[in-house]
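Sample 3 of the quickstart, ligand beta-D-glucopyranuronic acid:
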Amino acid sequence: MKKICLAVIIFCLGGCINAFSEDGSSLWLRQKGGKNTRVVIPFESAVMKIARDELQKAMKGVSVILKYDKEASAKEEGFSIKYEKGNYIVSSPSEAGLLYASYHLIRMEAAGELTTGINVKESPAYGIRVLNHWDNPDGTIERGYAGESLWQWDELPGIRSERYEQYARANASVGINGTVLNNVNASPSILTSAYLIKVKALADIFRPYGIRVYLSVNFATPMITDNLATADPLDNDVRVWWKKKADEIYSLIPDFGGFLVKANSEGQPGPCDYGRSHADGANMLAEALQSHGGIIMWRAFVYSPEDSDRAKQAYNEFKPLDGKFHDNVIIQIKNGPIDFQPREPYSPLFGAMHRSKTMVEFQITQEYLGFSNHLVYLAPMWKEFFEFVPHNTLNAIAGVANTGTDKNWCGHHFAQSNWYAFGRLAWNPELTSEEIAEEWLKQTFSADNGFVESVRDLMTESREAAVNYMMPLGLHHIFAWGHHYGPEPWCDIDGARPDWMPSYYHNASEKGIGFDRSSLGSNAVAQYPPELKSIYDDLRTCPDEYILWFHNVPWTHKMQSGNTLWNELCVRYNNGVSSVRKFCNIWGKQKAFVDDERFRSVSAKLEIQLNDAVWWRDACLLYFGEFSGKNVPSDQEKPGYDLQKMKDFRLDITNFESPLNGYFE
Ligand code: BDP
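Result:
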């Protein structure tokens, strides 16, 4: 008897310790089912096995029948779910659709929404829903904040890390169906035969999860790896080289997705090096892949230091090429005209390329949003984009991934929600930020109502908070040089490109602050449709959110709130700080609903975020205050840090868990 009791106690303790300590490696896929779930599959296959295993692992005591049915959805990957005579009946014209439906059921059960009245019909908004990994062959990740690259190139193809399959599974569970494995600043070696067999190994693991592999390519690859004299897209040898390369790739990976290309941008080679256009370059590659069914995602992220306004350049360069791209080319455009800032107006190139295919590139990794230290839920930012660019005008969607070798995949436990939200919005852009946050919270932490409501609100407010403590009112690109973590509005590097300097963007002077993109300035407003152009062009009608994006505004200008610009700036920065204080407070009350390990990790990161928010506010208000000649109004919290100390500070980004450490006090 004693022995049994002891065993029970030990068992309970073990269970409790597990229950109360989670490292986040299971992501949102933590549901535990029971043996009594019955799953009928239409035939045995690798995909059907996954679907059955997933349902059995996660669902409790239900019966699910998966049916292969050509009529179930007009779109290949679509599915329907209903309940009949004690069974959930899942139908789809494809295996991938049946797998997505299985994850849908699991999600519904976790969210407490699974009822016998179920009648679901789902199909994805886009056929191509891809992650872009900015991973280098040496294991580093450009703008990666969660460890090293997941791809162990030196071990592949022989050794296959368990994480590859877990990665594929996580993507499939939210509907992501493609992955570009390597950095857009692409190493030519990725296309060598030695690497292609490694790529094939990954493609083979991902395939049953419905995920296709794509590669970023360096436009000069034929010159670098095979000594061709040129990479001119109109040169016959070059064209033949790419065709042969395509044949080699498809002989290894028959469902290879295609290429992603960054050309003539930030020093990358491209067709313009030979006096050819982006269309010449993209079409040459498109022809090489066409017979295999591959596509080219050609990036429109271009800007040169000579032009007067960086925000105008992609439009100026690509708009004249509209209609000149082959059918299997999609122009991949970042959501805003500059570069993934906390807030940008949408890129006017969307809606200007009527005769070309276009796709949006979002950034899931938080290059400009506090890395993996800040809790910033990005769905509201992406939804804001869709308010301006109707989702059905796009042909595909891409997100720059935030995954790495960290145990919890994304560095910050809440950064997982951005990977999740990207997938869910790529499937259905009409979901609200709140809905997605709720789903994710219930699966990842707890379905307790109070917990879900409080933390959902925290999440949905977090993006606006970051805008406020970093760059309110349309300010942009005042980040520290190179790494883009903290504030450096004063940054001035001798001989550097002017459009990489904060002062290029903020233009602060005794008179005012902001970039004049009105018709009296750079006239970037003219790239927007007439209705928006007239709103943005007029200082009186331009929304506060964008005012310093489109105008250089006098410090004394009366804002919509009735405050002067200077006072409003102080209010916004302080609001940002107050929001993060509130987040710390809300999170502090959730201890009962979260295991200890994740609770503490998130608490520690929130502390860093709060310090950083204060740092941002103090740096910006003290620095801009030197131009405005005004003090922070008496009803606002005063900066406590010392401006000179902040200016002297150099962040060591290899070791910056808590960069401040009381440094500026
Ligand atoms: C910027 C990043 C840089 C990328 C570039 C791009 O700072 O590292 O290479 O965009 O998208 O956001 O090509």
